[in-house]
Specification:
mainly alpha; Arc Repressor Mutant, subunit A; Four Helix Bundle (Hemerythrin (Met), subunit A); 3-stranded antiparallel sheet; 9 helices; globular
Chain lengths: ~240, ~240
DNA sequence: CTGTTTATTTTGTGATCACAAAATTGAGAA
DNA sequence: TTCTCAATTTTGTGATCACAAAATAAACAG
């Protein structure tokens, strides 16, 4: 899945004379790498434990190792990637401690975020969320875990983004990057059919402009989605 | 303040033959740059709006621009540095919205963190915290804002670190990196003598193993430290 | 076949380079 | 002076290189 124009790669014609494509805009390559890796993490295409190598990712995306290095450093700072003591980078493994702490943090921050968002949400947003939720239902019954994760993220952050938050929102985004790869492995084990859709009540709360109801719906959604794991055997390995 | 051995810099002897120092260990240079910038931010030596340039920082620390690039990317991902649309990097400016949100996030996360830490804190920790607090008192009366900020960070995170948290702790660290530079400008304006020391009660709560009391003390400390700004004129500029 | 040791490959790290976009400076005209 | 525009410098970006540590593969001895 090359992300850059083919003229960009293998730019080695004459010595000490590197030809470069016009470069659509400043930092476009890094941005594309960043989005590619983020999407891969959020949709579970990067499995916990998976090794992430500079040259590997660079070749896979059709770019030089340079922008990949910077993106990896950024994602490592967000704890979305794990830099081992020997420098190797991998998708973090989940542990029981990490999981329960993420659950706690999500409940704390995402309920707050949804309350903040409430005052800026109107019926137009409710309709959009309804549309997304329909796609979510479809992804659940069809067992398309990747689509489910993408849409579920879209649903939640469509709400949170209305909060106009510049502090809490990035923190929550970091949390999602951390637990998403593990959730994907859970869906692979127990499927997606067991998922309960708590989104209907969230939409209803938004339509009624009831902040408390939205808070409860978000709480229920988080606890349903992640609490399920508690009954399945939390730690993937001891 | 060169951070690397003098043998490392100006390593340009013969063409295409770079001499390198034995390299104490893997990633040591980047780690030193990272700690240097983090300390500068946390102690307020980097003022909001200050431009952070690759070559500038690299030369100041006596390293090549390479490790600086990676560190900056990491700190930008933690919102500790602000990457403008044109690629320039600077210490973030504070706004009223950001400030109140940071305050809210601190109250949410740091109280939780202190409660988690309580069960692992013993009298040895209390004595250490007392020692730190004495130094804090001294820094306040002497008006040494930089020392105060360093010690205050040390005090809080000595507590939080006992929580053995791997999720919430990095989030809070990100918050401190974000508000520290601004706080320094406030201390420069109104001085440090107005600061109220709420740490005594926190230490007392730890000695008594009273989680609720610790929560209250941390809450009071945060609100005292940051609530003061509300009476001084929050936004540095509109 | 098993365990150990050596050779090979992979991989992160620091450094340097070339280039373009952007900011800054400088000169000249009104 | 003040404005405008060209020249210069600064700065981030992508690319490539050299090196060492680490991981893997390959020999080899038992």
């Amino acid at each position: 899945m090359p992300v850059a124009s083919s003229a960009n790669q293998t730019a080695k014609a004459s010595p000490s004379k590197t030809v470069r494509a016009p470069a659509a805009q400043r930092g476009a390559t890094r941005l594309q790498v960043d989005q590619a890796v983020r999407n891969a993490l959020l949709t579970g295409r990067f499995v916990p434990g998976k090794a992430v190598t500079l040259r590997g990712l660079a070749q896979e995306l059709g770019v030089s190792p340079m922008p990949v290095r910077e993106v990896i450093q950024g994602l490592a700072a967000e704890r979305a990637l794990d830099v081992k003591p020997n420098g190797r980078v991998q998708v973090p493994e989940m542990t029981a401690d990490r999981f329960s702490e993420i659950l706690k943090a999500r409940l704390l921050l995402e309920t707050e975020l949804s309350c903040m968002a409430m005052e800026n949400l109107d019926n137009t947003d409710a309709k959009e969320l309804t549309s997304i939720d329909l796609d979510i239902d479809e992804s659940i019954i069809s067992g398309n875990a990747e689509a489910y994760m993408r849409l579920n993220h879209l649903f939640h952050f469509r709400i949170y983004r209305a909060s106009n938050s510049s502090i809490l929102l990035p923190l929550v985004e970091s949390l999602w990057l951390q637990f998403a790869p593990y959730m994907r492995t859970v869906y692979g084990r127990v499927g997606t059919v067991n998922l309960i859709d708590q989104h209907k009540e969230a939409i209803h709360a938004i339509s009624n402009k009831n902040a408390d109801a939205l808070r409860n719906a978000i709480t229920a959604d988080i606890q349903d989605g992640m609490g399920m794991i508690g009954r399945e055997g939390l730690p993937p390995e001891a």
